[in-house]
Amino acid sequence: MSIFDMKDKVTSPSSPFSFGFTLGNLLVESTDQNWKVCFIDSKDLKEPVSRFYKTTQLDSLAMYWNSHSETYSHLPMAEMHKHLSKIAKQTRSLTTTDTFWAL
Q1: With contact defined as beta carbons under 8 Å apart, do 1 and 85 qualify?
Q2: pLDDT range class, residue 28, cuts 50, 70, 90
């Protein structure tokens, strides 16, 4: 699970906010003209290829915006990672009450 989290406690110190994105998985694969996943090696091609085929799988993409957000910059790296991992895991259920999910 990947996460991008931006927190701002400078703009409004009494009400810090955060926004970010979480992503469960992004998979891009090469395919043949029949959309069968395969590995394409240019050394094996007998003639130049005019088209490349790709499939993409996107899983659990979410965007959030939180006001009155807790900041983690004062925490040790391991503790910060723990909090960010918790946010990323919440994207699967979207049931948390302290996060506004926009996407």
Answers
A1: yes
A2: very high
